[in-house]
Amino acid sequence: MFEQLKEWDRELFIYLNGLGIERFDSFWIAVTQEEYWIPLYIIFFILIFIAYKKKQAFIVCIGFLSSFVVTFGLTRLIKASVARIRPNNAENLKEIIRILQEPTYYSFVSGHTSSSMAITTFIVLALRHRFKWVYVFYIWPILFATSRIYVGVHYPSDIAAGALLGVIIALIIYKICKKMLARGDKELEEL
């Protein structure tokens, strides 16, 4: 059963990666680079400070940063434990897939996907009460995750597991953050 799932994952990866069109390569290479998303992170911080009072905003910022740090750390632990070779490094795939990047570290789970889903889910949970349109930010992790298959460095299961991991971590950290915010509100009421 497990071998069959791996084979389907491999075949789906080959199919999706093969849909790539050369004239869009530079777009997907840019999308997959973290530094191009720095303006989005700045927007997230600005929105937090618009939506919350100063002390609350700092608590939410700590939650925002924690969602990234915890996800990054767990992703690295999982990658080291599972030790799955990336498709771009698999000898039996090199001749049949499009490879636009060549990272050498392990594949499962996708760090780009897990981190972007954690950050986005946390931001959506934290800001949805103030900005109804905040769900549009999910475009970012969808593009980010798609780029990883396009450039040839992740299987679909790496993406799916990374997305699930990111959402779970964001939900946990948001619940903790919400308790901290509620405790802070009670302390203000007692003054």
TrEMBL record:
Query: Where on the tree of life does the source sit, at the highest rank?
Result: Bacteria
Q: What is this protein called?
A: Uncharacterized protein
Q: Which organism is it from?
A: Mesonia oceanica
